[in-house]
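Students often ask what a holo structure prediction actually looks like on paper. The answer is less mysterious than it sounds. You provide the chain, you provide the ligand, and the output is a string of discrete structure tokens encoding the 3D arrangement of the protein together with adenosine-5'-triphosphate.
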Amino acid sequence: MEWTGLNELREKYLSFFESKGHLRLGSFPLVPKNDNSLLLINSGMAPMKKWFLGQEEPPCHRVTTCQKCIRTPDIERVGITARHGTYFEMLGNFSFQDYFKDEVIPWAWEFLTEVLEIPADLLYISVYEEDDEAWDIWTKKIGIAEDHMVRFGKEDNFWEHGSGPCGPCSEIYFDRGPEHGCGKPGCKVGCDCDRYMEVWNLVFSQFDSDGKGHYERLARPNIDTGMGLERLACVMQGVGNLFEVDTVRAILNHVEKISGKTYGKDDKTDISIRVVTDHIRSTVFMVSDGILPSNEGRGYVLRRLLRRAARHGRMLGINRPFLTELVETVIHENKAGYPELEEHADYIKKVIATEEERFYKTIDQGMNILSGLIENVKKAAEAGKEAILSGIDAFKLNDTFGFPLDLTKEIAAEEGIKVDEENFKAEMKKQKDKARQDRLSRDISGWAEDLFADLDAAATRFTGYDTLEDKGVLMAISDGEELLDAVSTDEGEKEGVLVVLDQTPFYAESGGQVADTGTIVTADGARLEVKDVKKTPKGYFVHTCTLLEGTAKVSDSVIAHVSKSRRNAIARNHTSAHLLQKALREVLGSHVHQAGSYEDDERVRFDFTHFSAVTPEELALVEQIVNDKIFEALDVTIQNLPIAEAKKMGAMALFGEKYGDVVRVVDVEGWSTEFCGGTHVKNTAQLGCFKILSESSVAAGIRRIEATTGFGVLRLLDERSEMLDKVSSYLKVNNMKDLPLRAASLVAENKSLAKELEREKAAAAASKIDGLFESAADVNGIKIINAYFSGTAPEALRSMSEKVRDKAPNVVSALVGSNEGKITLVVACGKGALDAGLKAGVLVKKIAAIAGGNGGGKPDLAMAGLKDETKIDEALNAVAGIVKEALEG
Ligand code: ATP
Ligand code: MG
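The corresponding structure tokens follow.
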């Protein structure tokens, strides 16, 4: 066999199976679509379940793929075994009720021994103990010697997952030689050491299981195979483990370079290098597929992997955020197979940088606290107590310092300490319950659910997509406290009346779109004004109304009438959100995904994933594109479609949103296709016009645009022109066009006036100072200047004192000022006074003491606060004496 690169191996495999009539498909995203049973795709067959189960028709009955996989259950083995990564690629060929064992076994053998020329005697085969059929094909048809064959039980060689299709499997192992083995006497195929490495698993799904031990043989069975690409490369490149395979090694080398550590010298270092190498691969692919770090679900997996990588980086002595630097190498090594990585490069870097920086901010504090806790546990253990870290402590570390439980567990385990997980979970639950309680108390639908719990009626039918006025029957009515038979206005208008109808044209708040408003009138003439509509989990539309007149009763026939102008305004804003999303993707890139939205009759608020502020130029372009689409008058069509068909149309779904089998698809002719339950205009021209009001940040990696359409734009114009009118009249401008010039000249004028004022003030101060010199006393050749300026702030007083000081050398000045109830004394000494041995800092204390104050400062300038206003004159009069004393004493 010949050394073959990982990218080349992938290509060889896929084209080999193409030559056997298979359709080659690209890897599916890591996030499973419409499958709640799985957090992340972990095998080639996982995204194809519906084709295996016959719930959906595959595009071809023979398919081959190379699938990105994440396996978090293997996380503890990463870096320790030679063959496990949390991220790897799985090669696979699949038969949906087409070929079976007779074809797949020879093909697998042909690929390994003829295409790749792996020596046959290094390959070992396992089959399920009862699968004689497979045994015979391997031994008789292929001619494998029995000493290279093993039979395994259900645990190892039977693929089963609850009820449904299942069956035996057959694995192909590569013997890497005794030097990779554990050396134990019983070491053979199936041993958990790294000598016999499983490379390929062929699954024969030939039964339908009822989940209770009964297996029905399928008339038309399936084939599903999986071969780890990195493991195969390991064999073909003759390297020690997954991390030394060409494309992965490049990343490992980069980790070596950043850490300054050499790989292959000691086990602990090697493990950390491999962990970082593996985790940066997984996380780059996860972020590229739209996963963001969070505390739940796949976001948690991502966060855990990133934080674990950061921590192992520290163990390697890297004391700064570094993961972003590795992203480039991961992308470079993988872009051949996954070109989207390059497209998302900036986004991936930003997500990872943000998460790593966040973690860095708290990791030191957290680590210190954890080490302290561990020390305490150790001491307690020495005293005979159990070596366990309390659940509350672990929870606090998680809550305050972002230490995922698993990280705390790992660090504790390194010291032989366990973590009380049960109490951790209890704490976590307490917090969640509280959050839910808070949410419930804010959410009327939860409360209305209780109120209408006993109502025995079918869910409300919503007719408002097609009509704004409809007949209906009043099924239930309540004053908000309890269900009633009737509510009347005997005591006047009644607010907070809740009404459920059998069918309604009123849209209930959902998907970011606000509820409709309008009126409900009963056959007896009772009139209700609808203020809000919410949908309960059971499907009742609860109209919150004010009863204006009459008596509304259960079983009344009613006419429900939605406010048309408001509904139209909401629809305009909602359609604009679709135009906006597409325009943002065009201008900023395909990493843009909706992260929340809100539409009412005045504006649209659209949150999306993006990592920097949108520039004014980008915003202008986005706005222009949306307006282009409005002026092109594109038809908006709405269809209810099976989900598969909708996807084929390329409909955009919300990340992480669950959808039923039939979805509503809103299509703007030639521009955008989205899953959406909202109400829309029929043609984009109805929007009139679109204007962005603001762009801002809502959270790390999430931006928000607020915009408006139609009348909203007109209102904006009105508001602005009203404002301009006002400004024009203040500035006495007749023609609005002259406003900018007038404003600019006013500002300039104001500036020159301010300068002039400054000059005047300075001149006034100078003449005051001159006056002071004229009346100054003389003590041994030093002029004594003292004066009181009421209404003068300390700063002005200080600058006057500086001027006096600098005007003549032989001078001591003591100026008092008062302002806002504070009295300040500033003493200054000119150069000659200083030479004569005077110090302002000393003088100020003596003078201030007379008026009950204290202060200090430098020899040439010092300040003090005075307390007694009545003593100011006395203090000033004492200055000459104090100076004389100082000079002579
Ligand atoms: P093992 O027992 O070695 O963990 P497995 O039984 O979990 O393997 P399968 O679920 O049969 O493996 O997956 C099919 C193929 O995917 C395996 O034969 C192997 O080549 C590859 N594979 C499985 N897990 C990993 C992993 N964590 N890292 C890399 N490759 C893997
Ligand atoms: Mg496994």
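Confidence is low (pLDDT under 50) at residues 439-446.
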